[in-house]
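INTERNAL AUDIT FORM
Audit reference: QA-55
Scope: verify that the stored structure record matches its stored sequence.
Auditor: D.O.
Record contents follow.
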Amino acid sequence: MNAENEEVKKVIPITAVEPDEEMVSLYAAHQKIYPRSVKGLFAKWRWIMVWVTQIIFYGLPWIDWGQRQAVLFDLSVRRFYIFGLVLYPQDLIYLTGLLVISALSLFLFTAVAGRLWCGYACPQTVYTEIFLWIEKMVEGDRSARMRRDEADMSLEKFSRKFAKHLIWLVFAVWTGFTFVGYFTPIQVLGQEVMALNLGSWEIFWVVFYGFATYGNAGFMREQVCKHMCPYARFQSAMFDKDTLIVTYDAERGEPRGARSKKADLAKLNLGACVDCSLCVQVCPTGIDIRNGLQYECIGCGACADVCDTVMDKVGYPRGLVKYSTENAMKNHWTQKQTLRHVFRPRILVYTSILTAIVLAIFISLAVRTPFKVDVVRDRGVMARVVEAGKTENVFRLQIMNAAESDQRYRITVTGLPGLVITSDDTIMVPSTEARTVPVRVQIPPGAVEPGSHKFHFVIEALGTDISIREKSKFIMPR
């Protein structure tokens, strides 16, 4: 082969050049929040609500009412006992009324002052406050807890962590025990615990509710408010420009910056905010209120308390962070003007509807008869002819005694000529129980035309002036 015809093939290696790869996370890493302790007006109100709600929750099951627990939801016999009131499944209307009242109250309080429920009375907030207090008592203040978490494991760190979690668990289990005590008489429940004879149902709910308290208040905390609670998402639909919210006065506070106590703000061109970041440190959800209202804000007012403390120290007027409205901040209204706009037509409508429903329920409970009657025709005997040519219909009456004492009842009929009861017309029903009895009703021949005729059962509670009329139909065969 000639050299000129020889093809020289050169193999050029091709190196794959990979572009720089960078992993981008769509989710921010969770940063543990260490809320700083704070004192002030709103902190006092939060602790007042902690005491009030927990005294009610832990105390109610131990109150006796006669021969029973004052508040008991006995699902096994389908009875709800609320002090002197006994409710049956047929009283579902009162549960509906309670749900309507709760919903309207939520609308009303949110329209007036934002997330008041979240900041002061929500169980998540209340138990988080309690667990944080336990944490502070065992591990120290915010800076001590942060240093301990960053340090390597030691005997001192382990012992404090162990003691904290042990107290948390004991408190959580006691909370679960109390919760179940509303459905199983708590004294009986306590005896079963001491005898190690708890049923599977009780064990499940004590553990479940206790674990929920331990997990939500001990670990998840602000994550529940920010990501699990739906209220945080739709609260903005209930806000308007006259709703009281925790607000930072940017016009007064900016530009922010550090300064000495005697500094001339005009010369330094600074606002009232000293940029101490204490408002962020005390926030249970870790937000900066100076960035404006955020859905994570639960309206607890901790930032307002600590800011007022700082303002007092530097000699500036209070109220850099405060409860106010968007219109009030924009128009520089006084407190009196702000409150006048807060109670606007929307609030008055909510209040009127809520008041009317509450009054209706209380009036209904006040005039509620202490027994109920259901009349059902005996399907086995529609109508039959008995002695002397009389026609007989058979009914079944269920009488529910809602009183907490045995009661005798007399049954009579009215509405048709010659109509009488031939079975026993007097019945005794034990307290808070129901009894079904057959009732035979007869009419003489020729008293009415063939067909269906309306009449009434009259059930009278003997020894009282209370009676119930129940409509039914008498069948006269052709």
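Auditor finding: record pair retrieved intact. The chain has a mean pLDDT of 89.
Action required: none
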